[in-house]
Design brief:
It comes from Mesorhizobium qingshengii. The protein is built from 21 helices and 24 strands. With 640 residues, the protein is an alpha+beta fold. It folds into 5 domains: 67 residues; 104 residues, 2-Layer Sandwich (Beta-Lactamase); 122 residues, PAS domain (Beta-Lactamase); 113 residues, 2-Layer Sandwich (Beta-Lactamase); 184 residues, Alpha-Beta Plaits (2-Layer Sandwich), CATH 3.30.70.270. Strands 12-11-16-15-14-13 form a 6-stranded antiparallel β-sheet. A hairpin with an 8-residue loop joins strand 23 and strand 24. The longest helix has 49 residues. The N terminus and C terminus are likely disordered.
């Protein structure tokens, strides 16, 4: 072809009758152009073939990469249609490749996340977006949502720049999202727990340049999140000046490895200026090769309320200690003996007076059972009284108090007056006893003397008129309750009114001293005739009264005559002069039908007057009896 072209050119030029040189020049140019064109054509053809081969190889590599990739890859049209999808993407959503390539991205996107994809598409079409990445939820074939991370780019026409399609990588991040949700939930619970407990967390990391604090904590101090983060020494400036040295020493001791952890209580300033009490605990968890701090973590606890409570308790404890000391001094100083026990009846306290009365020292008594130290009994029955656990709110019976006797370990005794009170705590539980007692020996002796004096005649020692009347009233009341209707001829109680005869002469001749001495002899004579259960009293002057507790009126007359005989037989001499006296007796029954006490006494008195009128030295029965006459004494009448 090239030779033919040269020949043609030569023929043409020869016909044009050109010069030899011009012809040669033209011929050379033509040959050169022809050869160059042929070379360029061959080179271009070879280049096209190579590019096609490279494109085919690239496409093969891309398709193989799509097929073998563990991450989903999809080629997406501008309308959202899935032009091509790899097996990983189809499997992620539970489809086959054919099924998923028949859908659009809008159809497999969670309804709540559709706007994310649409905004990206709008940006692509407008030319404002060349690459993209975001997280969204897709819907599996079975309807379950799956979180995925989508990253891709736009493929555009090289000449016009018009977008052609999208190539996207879709990574399944559902497990990560679920883990994040669980972490977020746990963190929410953790933050709630920290807030509820008044706690925060700090994290000192020198690699990150300082300290970070939990949001719970900074809010407790009145700051915004992150406002306190940074400078690792800033927290020291917020500590109360009086606490800084102690805190700094504790911090340094831990940093130097002298303590296994850091712990301190101090006051920290709130942002508004007031002070909060803080409990700070922390520990170094990482050091460098030279032992320098790299990281430490700790907790901060708001203990303001606890500190306020402790302060109140400290004040209360001080007051309680003062009160306890006052009580101790009081118990040590008072004149009453005091013994305290616990719920098991073990002695917990004894004051000096108790030691003296019991004969046991406090050191020896403490911890011992109460019975080892203190044993109180009723002086009449001998039964232990007043030291067992009493009913709450009860007090020991008064008769036990009046008859309590303390028996010491050496068997000596002393009369005491005691009060036993239970110790009850705020839960209404029995905790022990407090026994307060006094030495009542002298007082009780005086009490007995006064009681005896109040009921007995001072001269003769017999019952006096008032106590005798009370006894009579009791007997009359009992007779009425029993329905006893005794008469002078029946059984039951009998009353005698005894009046001395010729007693005035003794007083006139010997004086009152002689009369008093004789009255004592008369009292002894009357008591000597009666049985122990019978009652005898001096009503006043030379008048006596007797109650026979049992026996008929006939027996009463026999006893009355024995009294008359005993009095008449007294051998009484005063200042060398003998004196003879006698007695007249009026007798009356005590029964339900005998009237009141004064009526019975009046009846007996009238009978006694009748006996005197009959010649003295005899017995007369009251008119309500079976006898209405006076009886002269049989042996005494001759003697007088």
């Amino acid at each position: 072809m090239a030779g033919l072209s040269v020949a043609v050119v030569s023929t043409v030029l020869s016909r044009l009758d050109l010069g030899n040189d011009a012809l040669k020049l033209c011929l050379g140019i033509s040959v050169t152009v022809a050869v160059g064109a042929l070379f360029l054509a061959a080179l271009f053809a070879r280049r096209i073939t190579k590019d096609r081969r490279q494109i085919a190889q690239s496409e093969e590599r891309f398709r193989r990469a799509m097929k073998d990739s563990a991450i989903g890859i999809a080629v997406v049209g501008l309308d959202g249609s899935i032009l091509e999808a790899n097996p990983a993407f189809a499997a992620m959503l539970g489809y086959s490749r054919e099924e998923i390539e028949a859908l659009t991205f809008f159809q497999i996107t969670h309804p709540d996340d559709l706007q994310i994809g649409r905004e990206t598409m709008d940006g692509l079409k407008a030319g404002t977006v060349d690459a993209f990445q975001f997280e969204k939820r897709y819907l599996r074939k079975d309807g379950k949502p799956v979180w995925a991370h989508l990253a891709g780019s736009v493929i555009r026409d090289e000449k016009s720049g018009r977008p052609l399609y999208l190539v996207s990588q879709i990574e399944n991040i559902d497990a990560r999202k679920q883990a994040e949700a669980r972490i977020a939930e746990a963190e929410t619970r953790w933050n709630f727990a920290l807030a509820g407990a008044g706690q925060g967390v700090w994290d000192l990391d020198m690699r990150k340049g300082g300290t970070t604090y939990s949001s719970t904590w900074v809010r407790m101090l009145g700051y915004a999140d992150g406002e306190l983060d940074g400078d690792p020494d800033h927290w020291l400036t917020m500590i109360h000046p009086d606490d800084r040295q102690t805190v700094a020493e504790a911090d340094r001791a831990h940093l130097d490895g002298k303590t296994p952890f850091f712990e301190a209580e101090f006051r920290m300033r709130h942002k508004d200026g007031h002070w909060m009490w803080i409990l700070d605990r922390g520990k170094v968890i990482e050091r460098d090769a030279e032992g320098r701090l790299i990281r430490a973590i700790g907790s901060l606890t708001d203990i303001t309320r606890r500190k306020e409570a402790e302060e109140r308790l400290a004040v209360s404890a001080t007051m309680l200690a003062d009160e306890k000391e006052r009580l101790r001094v009081t118990l040590q100083s008072i004149g009453d003996a005091v013994i305290c026990t616990d719920a098991a009846s073990r002695v917990t306290f004894m004051n000096p007076v108790a030691e003296k009365l019991t004969g046991v020292s406090g050191g020896e008594a403490l911890g011992k059972m109460l019975g080892h130290v203190y044993w109180a009994v009723d002086e009449e029955t001998g039964h232990r009284i007043g030291v067992t656990r009493p009913t709450i709110g009860s007090q020991p019976p008064s008769d036990q108090n009046s008859r309590a006797v303390l028996i010491r370990r050496d068997d000596t005794r002393c009369s005491i007056r005691q009060v036993v009170s239970p110790i009850i705590n705020e839960r209404n539980e029995f905790c022990g006893l407090v026994i307060v007692f006094q030495d009542f020996t002298d007082a009780r002796a005086l009490q007995r003397q006064l009681a005896h004096a109040a009921a007995h005649d001072a001269l003769t020692g017999l019952a006096n008129r008032s106590s005798f009347i009370r006894t009579m009233e009791e007997l009359v009341d009992q007779a009425r309750k029993d329905g006893t209707t005794e008469s002078a001829g029946g059984g039951g109680h009998q009353f005698m009114f005894v009046d001395l005869d010729h007693f005035k002469l003794v007083n006139d001749t010997g004086g009152h001293a002689a009369g008093d001495a004789l009255l004592k002899r008369v009292a002894e004579a009357i008591r000597g005739v009666l049985s122990p259960e019978d009652i005898v009293a001096r009503l006043g002057g030379d008048e006596f009264a007797v109650i026979l507790k049992s026996g008929s009126a006939a027996r009463a007359k026999i006893v009355a005559r024995s009294i008359i005989d005993a009095i008449a037989g007294l051998d009484f001499t005063w200042d060398g002069r003998p004196h003879l006296i006698g007695a007249s007796i009026g007798l009356a029954a005590i029964g339900a039908n005998c009237g009141e006490v004064d009526e019975i006494i009046a009846s007996a008195d009238a009978a006694c007057y009748a006996a005197k009128a009959a010649g003295r030295g005899c017995v007369s029965v009251a008119p309500n009896g079976v006898d209405n006459k006076t009886e002269p004494p049989e042996p005494l009448a001759a003697a007088s």
